[in-house]
Amino acid sequence: MTDSPPLPEGYEISTDPARIDAGRVHRWLSTDAYWALGRSREKQDRAIEGSLNFGVHDTLSGEQVAYARVVTDRATFAWLCDVYVDPSVRGKGVGTALVAAVREELRPCGLKRIMLATHDAHGVYAKLGFRPLERPDHWMALVDG
């Protein structure tokens, strides 16, 4: 695996659920994330409650500037999803550092795999060791709607 890129100065990552700005996360995802457009606040709140959440916060203002969540049993599997970086801080390495922090937080669990899906950020994830499935024909999905 590649080295973990540092978080830019002036930002910190927290997994404290009390620090997640659920309203901001909902607004980001439901209005600007192609995979979650129109997601209801109630559904987003349930997703947050049932997940391991990561927030990136400005150390001076405390404002949340990025988010990621992981659905996991902390033993065999994890699904990384809802990774979002506020447009005002994109290009600074915040997203890459956030995903690296997720990887490092999960490393002690000894998970066989951490999965994700992306339409347009393959390069970001590849820098952190993610790669396409070797046997995608072994995977299936039950998709509702």
Describe this structure in words.
The protein has 145 residues and is of the alpha+beta class. The protein is 26% helix and 22% strand. The chain is built from four helices and five strands. It has a five-stranded mixed beta sheet. Strand 3 and strand 4 form a beta hairpin. Helix 1 crosses helix 2. The protein is globular and about 45 Å long. The termini are far apart. The model has no long low-confidence stretch (mean pLDDT 95).
Record keyword descriptors for this entry.
5-stranded mixed β-sheet; 4 helices; single chain; 5 strands; 145 residues; alpha+beta
What portion of the residues fall into strands of 2 or more residues? Answer: 15-25%
**What spatial order of strands do you see in the largest sheet?**
1-2-3-4-5
Largest sheet composition: 5 strands, mixed
Order of SSEs, N→C?
Answer: EHHEEEHEH
Low-pLDDT ranges: none
Number of strands: 5
Global mean pLDDT:
95
Question: What characteristic shape results from the CA principal axes?
Answer: globular
The DSSP helix count reads 4
In a few lines, what is going on in this structure?
The protein has helices spanning 22-32, 41-49, 94-106, 122-126, and strands spanning 11-14, 52-58, 64-72, 77-85, 113-115. By secondary structure, it is an alpha+beta fold. The chain is globular and about 45 Å long.
